[in-house]
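Form P-L/3: holo structure prediction, ligand flavin mononucleotide.
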Amino acid sequence: MPDEIINAPVQKKLFPLCLATKDLNHPASIKTYISIGGYEALKKILTDKISPSDLLEEIKLSGLRGRGGAGFPTGLKWSFMPKNAKGEKYLVCNSDEGEPGTFKDRDIIRYNPHQIIEGMIIGAYIMDATVGFNYIHGEIWNEYLSFGEALNQARQAGLLGKNILNSDFSFELHAVHGYGAYICGEETALIESIEGKKGQPRFKPPFPATYGIYGKPTCVNNTETFASIPWIIRHGGQAFNDLGVANSGGTKIFSVSGHISNPGNYEIQMGMPFSELLDLAGGVWKGHKLKAVIPGGPSTALVPAHTIMQATMDYDGLSKIGSSLGAGSMIVMDETTCMVNTLKRLSYFFYEESCGQCTPCREGTGWVYRIVKRIVDGQGRLDDLNLLKDVSQKISGRTICALGDAAAVPVLSFIKHFEVEFEYFIRHGKSMIESLND
Amino acid sequence: MSKLPKKITKKIDNELLKYPKNQKKSAVMAALQFVQAEHGWLSNKDLSDVADYLEIPEIAVMEVATFYNMYDLKPTGKYKISVCTNISCMLRGVDSLVNHIKQRLKIDFNELTKDEKFCLKESECMGNCDAAPMMVINNEKMYEKISPEKFDVIIKELK
Ligand SMILES: Cc1cc2nc3c(=O)[nH]c(=O)nc-3n(C[C@H](O)[C@H](O)[C@H](O)COP(=O)(O)O)c2cc1C
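OUTPUT (holo model):
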């Protein structure tokens, strides 16, 4: 074979791995999950008494990185859990999904809850965890209830509780819920919330692996991360890694929303070109032109159309163009979008959701929102853009958790790419985009 | 004797099974949700009843009730309508929907209609953005892809 054929990139496709049952009848039932090979990995582990360290090697080999936004290697994170700690050890699934534009964990819970459960049981076996919680976003109440039903099915099948499948391994798992606080998606705020407190992030170190829920070793992972585990054990870490590209093993669910023809979740092999994902989702709605995209949720930088059209959807592909993969929450904006108004809404979000603990974030997000608001109200001053940049830079890196950094990202990226629109608004007291349509 | 009705304490007791015996506080989020689902909102008395039942200080309950957006410390009428106005909903026209709702119900955000039937709340992202714009009624029932016309039909059906 000629070299160029051997080296040609393999085409990346839709690949329902975490959403494997979505298009089947009764997707969420345990029967359906078992019919596609569900719980086989767990059975094999318990029957063959496969050692936790061998399983951990498989996960490291898979190249799986945390799907909650930070992209930290899962195998490495799991290796931080202390081996011989006495008493309880906790495993937490983070289904708090509050990053605007994210709705992938909702679909995994809705359509394939047992794959999350199996992933958590395997995780518990590897880390020797005794109790688990799935912390579910308070706004998706139906999913909270349906996940509880899935837990009952698993319990009845002997897959949870004491002596799972008659082995000497025991693990109990519960569903709990948030009640409207974005910050509780941050893992230490989530831990506080499970303890029955307001969700204010903890200072690290100590990290949750040594001091988590009730001071016990705790590991928090995203829903999609856990749902990837059974496939990895069943097919091998290398097979998972090979689905994606370098530094981005496996598949990723992209939640596509905004000005798109077919909003929804698209689970694709990592490394697919952005343009193909856009086509899969039916392209920009109403035949409009693409203006810009937020590829991974508002805490990832906005990218103008001509740049994102060159990108591939994986960790390196998006960092090369100055943004990041985040949680895979792709927000599409067409040519009619006013960037100033849009930034105003995002700034309000971070201001509203700052937990108030760190001064730069509590005060800074308020400053930012009020400045953008005064521009939109026609009271903007020419120096406001410098002020916005200055305030944002002074929040970033100066807070206990990453909400502060996240709040700065939209401000800096919106102004960087669409400064003209901001200047127009300040000079004319009205939106350049709306003026075009007049 | 607990001042909370049996119906609620039974639910709280079930919730407590999820946590270690000496960590009753962990059930506070759920306990408040149960009480609010029953009463529509949380009065100071509700908070202190929950504190009593879980044997934790009232201030600890107050902290939680004021921190999380979905708890209401004022009456919200028979139907609390929470509309997400965050970016994905905004891009799909929620602002004009909100204007329509405000005119139709003659209230602003955080206000109650005169007959105390409806209350309007602005909400952050509900994680359901493929169905934008959307709203949730009484924290549990989600209505998707709402247009002004669809809104009118929905509220006519709410008795
Ligand atoms: C403000 C903020 C919000 C977050 N929200 C979420 C969330 O909704 N879901 C999530 O899985 N991770 C969220 N994270 C990341 C978590 O702190 C943590 O990194 C993640 O749950 C770890 O799991 P993973 O390694 O599997 O991604 C958030 C972080 C910050 C700073």
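COMMENT: Chain B touches chain A at residues 18, 20, 23, 25-30, 32-33, 56, 60, 63-64, 67-71, 85-88, 90-92, 123-132, 136, 139-140, 142 (CB under 8 Å).
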